[in-house]
Amino acid sequence: MAGIVVVGAQWGDEGKGKLVDVFASKADMVVRYQGGANAGHTLVVNGQKTVLHLIPSGILHPETVCAITSGVVIDVFGILDEIKRLKAAGLLANPRQLLISDGATVLLPSHKALDAAREASLSGEKIGTTGKGIGPAYEDRAARRALLFGDLFDRATLRAKLELHLREKNHLLQSLYQAEPVGIESLMAQIEQAAGELAPYRCRDTGFIINRALKANKRVLFEGAQGSMLDIFHGTYPYVTSSSTLAGSACIGAGIGPMQINQVIGVFKAYATRVGSGPFPTELNNETGERLRTLGHEFGSTTGRSRRCGWLDLPALRYAIRLNGITNLALMKLDVLTGFEKIGVCTGYRLDGELLTEPPPTQSDFVRVEPVIEWLPGWSQDLTKLTNLKDLPRTATNYLDFIGSQIATPIDVISIGPGREQTLWVKPLFNN
Ligand code: GDP
Ligand code: IMO
Ligand code: MG
Predict the structure, then answer these.
(1) Which of 124, 228, 350, 410 is the most exposed place for a label (fewest CB within 10 A)?
(2) Whose atoms come closest to the Cα of 35: which ligand?
(3) 143 and 265: one domain?
(4) Contact present, 303 and 39 (Cβ < 8 Å)
């Protein structure tokens, strides 16, 4: 049995997509268990870029089955676009490569409209959401009125639930936000058309299939979306997403037991980024931040927004290691630090004269922390063509060793470029 969770250990966009694609060549299944099309996972193979939002990042490997489980909120029109793009590229030739659980939550245009209207109605305190309707869709799930993916295939249930849904959403959109309502007849027709096209991917219960695969000693990768600091319960609330982004959520979202997870791989960048509002202690609002953004191409894969950039934040990483029970780490984008004369690393926070090694629990404290920065010498060599760890410049190795000494968790993978092949292994995956 090999259940491995790949989870973002920062504020999202750590490079999870690339890593999952690399690992997926050896995986039997890749599973998305939370989030929705707010995710933007980028895969680069032979110079060809694929950006995925809902489809798991194992999809470029025809032998790997990809599953979207009940914990995910599915934009039915968005996923169809993704499927069409993949097919146009000659991928997803066999529909059995993609399984969508009947228990997943359906995300509708009304959720997106509400997301946009809510953000527009806020003045100073916007969350800075991706506008993909994620919050409103999870609200419906929690309120027990969500449309489920399986409902799309039963006309009477679909209509009844949609009527109930639009009665409430249109009232909110029109009366509270002075926004346009969503018409039922055209939406019903569009959904029925989409349902017809999505029918080949329908799976009654992906959890059953995942469980069976694990019991048969197959290798199952659980692909996290977003990052630990965006978790609804343990992130920088309220500047978070609306799902639990942590490794434990893989069990809940997929419908398997915790003992079926053997390894939790935390993905982090050699520096830090954040999109949207919320505390970010190491943020660099200066030329260095701009340089990181330019060199790292730090623009959102989903919204194209500029990502906020800063030095690596070890207190946040330690916190993510604890929250997820991370057993192994993958360090991404080391190549981006080439050319910096000195590199900052935040080893702790100062708050009211006290030194903290992890983020404080309340937001009012978190926004007040001062990062303690240690400086390490940089390197000037291009790393992107290296094929062997031993060829890393000494100062780059020192940087890795310094991080290792601070977090007591092994770094097993080092990524030195967006391409699949730009990956250095300290230790192979699937060691059992
Ligand atoms: P995800 O949401 O965690 O999958 O990450 P994104 O795809 O949103 O953002 C990561 C970006 O960094 C993408 O553009 C990747 O192609 C790119 N990337 C991933 N790993 C590396 C790396 O090691 N070096 C560089 N330069 N880019 C990388
Ligand atoms: P991946 O999987 C980075 C952020 C948004 C916003 C907050 C809430 O690509 O790492 P939401 O639309 O979820 O209600 O927005 O969460 N956010 C992400 N930031 N990467 C992501 O996904 C994100 N998904 C949501 O920018 O601050
Ligand atoms: Mg992303």
Answers:
(1) 124
(2) 2
(3) no
(4) no
Within a domain: residue 69? Answer: yes
Which residue has tokens 């529909």?
A: 95
Same domain? For 173 and 254 the reply is no
pLDDT in tens, 377-429: 999 999 999 999 999 999 999 999 999 999 999 999 999 999 999 999 988 87
Q: Quick check: 272 and 11 in contact, CB under 8 A?
A: yes
Catalytic residue among 21, 28, 41, 115: 41
- Other beta carbons less than 10 A from residue 329's beta carbon: 25
Q: How many angstroms separate the alpha carbon of residue 46 from the centre of ligand 3?
A: 20
Whole-angstrom distance, CA of residue 61 vs CA of residue 111: 32
Record the pTM: 0.97
Give the tokens for residue 9.
Answer: 């250990």
Give me the domain span that covers residue 180: 105-202
**Residue 209 and residue 193 share a domain:** no
Dihedral sign for Cα 190, 192, 197, 201, please: positive
Closest among 345, 430, 371, 321 to 4, alpha carbons compared: 430
Going by alpha carbons, the residue nearest to atom 21 of ligand 2 is: 226
Alpha helix ranges (H) inside 122-154: 134-142
Listed in sequence order, the residues at least 6 apart from 351 whose beta carbon sits closer than 8 Å to its beta carbon are 360, 365, 368, 369, 370
